[in-house]
Specification:
Distance between the termini: 95 Å
Number of helices: 17
Number of strands: 10
Structural class: alpha/beta
Largest sheet: 8 strands, mixed
Shape: globular
Oligomer: single chain
Strand content: 5-15%
Helix content: 25-40%
């Protein structure tokens, strides 16, 4: 048995190498012979090592992926039947609340000397390597398209050098807020990309592939994402948005107290939509919610008219030869901007054929993992230019599927425009000829008119549908979007218009300089120009008289042919053979 010299008593330790030999030690010839034997043995081992080196090296590197690589990693919480659950011992209200007098409503948008800036990504960690190699400050969170967390885009981002605070001599009289849900897990289906598809391919045969270099982490990587529901960060986004809006516009609740009514907020039945609405309300009103507002939950499913989910009744929105036409554009651009990344990454995984679409998915995984678990190794794999390319790839997808380049965008957004005009004019919708729901919109309890505050939760595609239907044509200035380059200073950026928790404020103003009430459209704290709306002037602060705005939108409603766009038998040629920059389909006949 080998002895541990550090644990032996001093008497058993071998003598030091430089100790003098006692009389009677080994003769010098025997010592020389011993040294010769050691030398020959060492030489023989060296020859064997050199001969076997390729085999040994190969054996050392033949470490394949772990058996569970790429497989789903799921934690089910809460436990279905906890053994220590005693609800009666843990009531939520035991009385003895102490003093509860309230204070004045906040009115930051009207009283503060400046408007607060939302930076977008608290608690999330970006790749250190990208920060260290950037020549200029580069915020990766702002280059994920619709997967970016919302942030304040800043003054002049859309061409109007003004902030969300009311112009000099004006005061805020009302707010119509349209917002997207918070950060979520990936959707179940993807026409291009899709993290679950990539992870499933990895998990099919982990014994046949191995990764090294930058991709070595894949050898024991598991798929930690759920499907479609909010992430913890997504819940926080909507709570924070609710707090932010209460601080800015809380004074609008005075009108409800004066009329002895409650606000009615709207959302849809999908889990992430309902959770987003509740988290917003908790931020806006605080706990408990009972008695503070009424939450209308509309059904989001096929066959149900819903302006906040209009694709459910727009059949042509799902047809590749009609509304669902973006993928070829994304593929064409991906072949350009990801060519270098594919060449760089493909040799780092053996036994698995890495495709261009896989590399695109890795960029998606960077965003999805970050907003789900706070950080992602996938973010470290790409350069600034490749992230700018990804951001533009997402722009292409939504331009051609949901915005000005989609032949069904206007039709899907016009229903919400009808509801907006009804609210602005305090008159019911005249004709239900789109995605409006007559049962709900004709009922003053579920669709009240004349209120000073409205809040609607929806999806990013609907926000883009509405922007298109409103004729905010400054965002279409670069269209049709090309697939061979990124237009410099492009106007249409999904990360600016439809990120996670995006919010569109329709701000109503009363101004001393004009008798007409004014309206502004503020998207993620950036004032949007209204010059594409017929009759709206080019003003320094982005305002338009409400009567002018309403008249122009009534023209849009009259001209929009929802039945033809959503249900008509028409087709468009693929890719650039046909284009629109107004969100309309080919004309009838």
């Amino acid at each position: 048995m080998e002895k541990n010299y550090h644990e032996l008593p001093q008497s058993e330790l071998p003598p030091p190498s430089n100790a003098s030999r006692a009389p009677g030690s080994l003769p010098w010839k025997k010592s020389l012979l011993a040294y010769a034997v050691v030398a020959v043995s060492s030489l023989s081992l060296g020859v064997v090592w050199l001969l076997c080196r390729p085999v040994l090296d190969r054996a050392a590197t033949d470490v394949f992926a772990a058996p569970d690589a790429g497989s789903p990693d799921v934690h089910h919480y809460p436990p279905p039947s906890p053994t220590n659950a005693f609800p009666s011992l843990f009531p939520s209200d035991v009385g003895h609340a102490g003093p509860t007098p309230t204070g004045a409503e906040p009115a930051l948008v009207a009283t503060a000397p400046a408007y607060p800036i939302h930076t977008g990504a608290p608690h999330l960690l970006g790749p250190e390597a990208l920060r260290n190699h950037s020549k200029q400050p580069f915020d990766i969170f702002r280059h994920w398209g619709n997967l970016s967390p919302w942030f304040s885009v800043g003054r002049n981002a859309f061409g109007v050098d003004a902030g969300p605070e009311p112009p000099q001599g004006c005061r805020v009289t009302g707010l119509h807020l349209l917002h997207r849900h918070g950060a979520r897990y990936p959707t179940g289906q993807a026409s291009f990309g899709g993290p679950a598809n990539f992870s499933a391919r990895l998990a099919q045969s982990p014994e046949s592939w191995q990764a090294r270099g930058e991709l070595e982490f894949l050898n024991d990587w598991t798929y930690k994402l759920g499907e479609e529901i909010l992430t913890p960060f997504g819940r926080q986004q909507l709570f924070d948005l609710g707090v932010s809006m209460r601080l800015k516009y809380g004074f609008l609740l005075h009108n409800f107290t004066a009329t002895n009514t409650l606000p009615v907020f709207r959302t849809e039945s999908q889990d992430r939509m309902l959770a987003s609405a509740h988290n917003f309300a908790l931020g806006f009103f605080g706990y408990p919610l009972d008695g503070q507002y009424q939450q209308l939950v509309t059904i989001e499913d096929h066959g149900f008219n819903n302006t906040l989910a209009p694709s459910k009744t727009c059949r042509n929105a799902h047809a590749p030869s009609r509304g669902d036409r973006a993928v070829p554009f994304v593929r064409a651009w991906g072949a350009r901007y990801l060519r270098g990344a594919l060449t760089r990454l493909a040799p780092q995984i053996e036994g698995f054929e890495l495709t261009l679409e896989d590399v695109y998915v890795m960029q998606q995984l960077c965003a999805y993992e970050t907003v789900a678990i706070g950080y992602s190794k996938f973010c470290e794999l790409f350069t600034e230019e490749e992230w700018e390319g990804f951001d533009y790839a997402v722009d292409l997808y939504f331009w051609y599927n949901s915005a000005f380049g989609s032949p069904v965008a206007r039709a899907q957004g016009v229903g919400y425009v009808q509801e907006l005009i009804a609210r602005l004019t305090h008159t019911p919708i005249e004709t239900h000829n789109s995605s409006t729901n007559a049962t709900l919109d004709d009922n003053p309890a579920t669709f009240p008119l004349g209120q000073s505050l409205y809040v609607d939760a929806t999806h990013e595609v609907v926000v883009l549908n509405v922007i298109t239907a409103l004729n905010l044509t400054s965002f279409a200035a670069d269209g049709p979007l090309p697939t061979d380059h990124i237009p410099p200073n492009r106007a249409f950026k999904t990360s600016h218009l439809a990120p996670f928790a995006t919010n569109v404020q329709f701000q109503l103003l009363s101004c001393a300089s004009t008798p007409d009430p004014q309206i502004r459209v503020i998207i993620n704290d950036g004032v949007a120009p209204l010059t594409g709306i017929h009759g709206c002037p080019d003003t320094a602060d982005g305002t338009c008289p409400v009567p002018t705005f309403v008249a122009a939108q009534r023209e849009t409603i009259r001209d929009a042919d929802w039945a033809w766009a959503c249900l008509g038998e028409w087709e468009v040629p693929p890719e650039t053979a046909w284009n629109t920059t107004t969100g309309d389909p080919p004309r009838r006949g």
